[in-house]
Amino acid sequence: MAIILGIDPGSRITGYGVIRQTGRKLEYLGSGCIRTSVDDLPTRLKLVYAGVSEIITQFQPDVFAIEQVFMARNADSALKLGQARGAAIVAAVNADLPVFEYAARQVKQTVVGTGAAEKAQVQHMVRALLKLAASPQADAADALAIAITHCHMNQNAVRMGNSKLTLARGRMS
């Protein structure tokens, strides 16, 4: 049994999703968004860090999974996203959690079946896979999809003879 915290990072909205994996069974524990409404970036990063730290304290996850940085159209936006990711990762590392990173296309491929899936498709599949009464908010659904991807990757590693995924410089290898 493992509790997985998935994070969809953002400097304004950071989605989170928490699931429990028992064998092949996935159980929804919680999800939501950390919203930062202040204008200055340092304060937003502080709020992301504090919010993720609070979620870790509340749910006591065993594993932390986060979306990898992707190249945005705007370099400034990509830098801010990277800084928000960093704030979330530091919260996880401070709690001694192993950190795994997954590309957005890999998450969509795992959950929906295509790496080019739309947000609504991810929401629908997360709702179906976790047997939820309603679709979670888009950023929370993305975070849950990241946690689900970690479960599937971990199951595949076990099937292939690796008892655990290994970390190399903070990335799954």
Automatic annotation (TrEMBL):
Catalysed reactions, semicolon-separated: Endonucleolytic cleavage at a junction such as a reciprocal single-stranded crossover between two homologous DNA duplexes (Holliday junction)
Stored SUPFAM superfamilies: Ribonuclease H-like
UniProt xrefs under Gene3D superfamilies: Ribonuclease H-like superfamily/Ribonuclease H
Gene name per UniProt: ruvC
The keyword Mitochondrion is annotated on this UniProt entry: no
Sample GO molecular function, one term: crossover junction DNA endonuclease activity
CDD domains per the UniProt record, alphabetical: RuvC (cd16962)
Superkingdom of source: Bacteria
Enzyme Commission number: 3.1.21.10
Function, in words: The RuvA-RuvB-RuvC complex processes Holliday junction (HJ) DNA during genetic recombination and DNA repair. Endonuclease that resolves HJ intermediates. Cleaves cruciform DNA by making single-stranded nicks across the HJ at symmetrical positions within the homologous arms, yielding a 5'-phosphate and a 3'-hydroxyl group; requires a central core of homology in the junction. The consensus cleavage sequence is 5'-(A/T)TT(C/G)-3'. Cleavage occurs on the 3'-side of the TT dinucleotide at the point of strand exchange.
GO cellular component assignments: cytoplasm; Holliday junction resolvase complex
Name under which the protein is recorded: Crossover junction endodeoxyribonuclease RuvC
Organism field: Budvicia aquatica
Binding residues annotated for Mg(2+) 1, in chain numbering: 8, 139
Record localization: Cytoplasm
Residue positions binding Mg(2+) 2: 67
